[in-house]
Amino acid sequence: MIGRELGHYQIIEKLGEGGMGVVYKARDTRLGRTVALKLLPQAAGRDPDHRRFIQEARAASALNHPNIVIIHDINTAGGVDYIAMEFLAGRTLAQTIPPGRGLPIETVLEYSIQIADALAAAQAAGIVHRDLKPANVMVGEDGRVKILDFGLAKLILTPGIESTQTVTAAGTIMGTLSYMSPEQAEGRPVDGRSDIFSFGAVLYEMASGIRAFERESGISTLAAVLHHDPPPRNAPPDLAAIISRCLRKNPADRFQRADELKRALQQVGRSSPIPALAVLPFTNMSAEKEDEYFSDGLTEEIINALTKIAGLRVTARTSAFAFRGKERDIREIGARLAVDDILEGSVRRAGNRIRVTAQLIKVSDGCHIWSERYEREITDVFAIQDEIAQAIADKLRVGIVLERRTVRRPTEDLEAYNLYLQGRYHLYKWTPEGLARARQCFEQAVARDPGFALVYDALSEYHWFLGFFGIIPPKEAFSTGIWAALRAVEIDDTLAETHALIGMYRKELDYNWPEVQREMKRALEMSPSSPTVRLRNVVSGLMPLGRLQESVEELKSIIQSDPLSLFNRWWLTIAHYLARDNDLAMEQARFIMEIDPAYYIGHWGIGMLYMEMGLRDKAIAALRRAAELSGNIPLMLGWLGLALARAGETGEAGELLGRLFEISRTTYVPPSSFAWIHLGLGSVDEAFTWMDRAIDARDPMMMPIKSYPFFDPLRADPRYHALLRKMNLEKQPADR
C-alpha cells in the first residue's frame, strides 16, 4: 500500500494494525496536510448496517472535543472503506503504561480526567464507544490525551463476522474481552455506562500496570468480566473506590454519567471529599422478638437525623435494611451500597430501661472508628438518637447537627411513639395483613396523642398506597390521605416528606399542577437530599407532564443513595418504558426479579415491556404471574386483559372483562382496567368512555396519559385531547 493513493490521500508509511483495521500515515494532496488513514476490514463494507455506521461516524466527527481525535473524512475508494483522521505525534496509552508498575498517581489522574471529559461529551451526544482500551487512547508529546475509534466497534464487530477479539456461543460481540462490560460480553444492549466500565478497566491498568480481567484464555477472561472483581492494588482509597464503582457488574450500580465520574476524579486527594454512610438495622437483643419494631424504628430515626447533616451522604432505609439478618462482610456491604463507613448496633429493652450500642466501622479496612454504649431510661430514646447522630458528625468531620435542646420531640407519649413505630414496621411489609395492622397502630397512636404529626404523615402515606393500587376507591383514599397530611403540617410545618405527599395529592385529586410544583419546590428546599421527597417529585411533578428524561436522570441519582430499593427501581423501569427505552427498562425490571422473584410489580413491569416488544406469549405469562402474586387484584387483571386482547386471545379477554364486572358489584374496580381491555379488543368508543370515568374517579393509572406507548394510535382523536384538558394537561407551560 505504500505509495498508493486512495482518493486524494497518498499513503506514506504503515503506523499500526489492529481489530479495527490498518492505520497508515498519509498526505492529503488537496489540503497539503498529514493525516492518519484507517483502512477498514473488507467485511465492514458488506455489513447491512453500513449506512447506519456512516451516520454514527459522522456524528462522532461532529463531537469537536479536544480529547477526541478529529475525523476529517469518511469515504470509499477502489472498494476500500477508509477514515481520514488527524495525525497525532505520540504513543498509545498501552505503550505508555509500565507493565506491572503502572503510572504515577498524578499522571493517572491527569490522563483519566481528560478521558472522562471526552466520554461526557460523547454521552451528551448519545454516542457509545464500545471498545475503549489503552490501545485506543493516544498520549501526545504535550501530555494531551485523545480517544480514537468512536463508533467503529459497531461496524467492525457485527454478528456473523468472526473476530478473535470476542466470540461467544451466541455470536460475535463488539469490543475487546479484557475491557468490555458484562452486558456487552453477554451481547445485551449497551449505553454510556458500558463505556464507564471499560474506563474502569483502563483506570485500573493505569494505576497498577496489570489488566483487571485478563486471564490465560479467552473463556477465563470472559468469566472474570462476568463474575469476578479484580484484586485491590496500591491506589489511594478514594481512587480505589472510584475504580471499584466503575467496575460494578450491574450498570445501575456504576457512575451513571461520565461528567459525574470526572467530578469524582477531580476530588481525589483533596482534603474534604463527601463521606458516604450506611446505617444497618440495629439488632434486637430484647427478650421479646416482637420488639424488633423498636430497633427498626430507632435505626430509621437515626437515618433521618443523619440525613439532615450537611456534607454527609446517607444510604436510604430500604437499601440498608436489605442486609437484615444476612451474614455479609463489611467490605462487601460497603461496595454494594457505595459507602465509606457503616454504622451498626443493637438495642435491648427491659422494663423502663434501654441499652443501645453503636459502632462506626471503616469499610476499607474493617476497623472501628468509634463505638459507644448508652444505658438510659426509655424516655431518653430521642436524646440517644441525637447523640449518636452528633457523634457520627464529629467523627466524620461533617456538618453540625442542630443543638439538642432545639430538636423537637415528636411526642411526649412514649406509648404513642411505640404504636407509631409498630405501625411503620407493619406498613413496610406491604401485605394486606400488614396494612391493616399498620392502620390500627396509627389510629391508636393518634388517639393517645392527637398532636403527633408523624403519625398523621404515616396515615397519609398508608392511604396513598390504598388509592394507588386500587384497594379502595382512589377518590375516597386520597381525600382521607390529604386530610391527614394537612393535619401533619398544621402541627409541624417542617416535615418535607409530608409537603411532597401533599403535592402528590394535589396531582391525584385536583390535577392542580401549579400547586403540585409549589409543594414539591418547598419540600425540595427543605430536604434536597431526601430520596422520598425526590421520588415523589418525579412521580407527581415530572412524569405526568411528560418530562421523562428528567425523570430518568433523577431516578438514577436517587438510586445511588438507595440502590436496593425495588420500588425506586420499578419507577425507573416505568420511566424508561414510557420513554420507549425498552432495553434499559428491562434491565431494571430484571434487577428487581433477581432480588425478589415474588415482587408482583416487577412481573407487571416485565409484562408491559413484553407487550411493547411484540412478545405476546411472554407478556401474557408475566402479567398472569403478576396477577397471581397480587392476589388477583382488579388492577392487575386489567393489565392482563390488555395483554390477552392485544395477543388475539379475545375470548379470554372478554371473559376477564365479565369477571371484572362481577367483582365491581361488591368491590372497587379501577375504570382503567375496563378501559385497557376494551382498548385491546379494539372497542375504542367504550375505551374512551371508561377512560373518562377513570379521570372522574381519580384513577392513578391515567397519570401517564401523555406517554403511554399504547396510546399512540389515539393521539389524533379529539376525545384524547378532551381527556388531556380534563386533567389540565393540554398546553401546560411546562410542556411547551
The CATH homologous superfamily of the domain at 408-545 is termed Tetratricopeptide repeat domain
Largest sheet: 6 strands, antiparallel
CATH level 3 topology of the domain at 408-545: Serine Threonine Protein Phosphatase 5, Tetratricopeptide repeat
The helicity comes to 40-55%
Poorly predicted parts = 155-173, 399-407, 732-736
CATH architecture field of the domain at 408-545: Alpha Horseshoe
Strand proportion, as a percent range, falls in 5-15%
For the record, the CATH class of the domain at 408-545 is: Mainly Alpha
Shape: globular
Class by helix and strand content? Answer: alpha+beta
The oligomerization state is single chain
Gyration radius from CA atoms, angstroms: 29 Å
Overall mean pLDDT: 84
The count of helical stretches stands at 31
Q: How are the strands of the largest sheet arranged?
A: 1-2-3-4-6-5
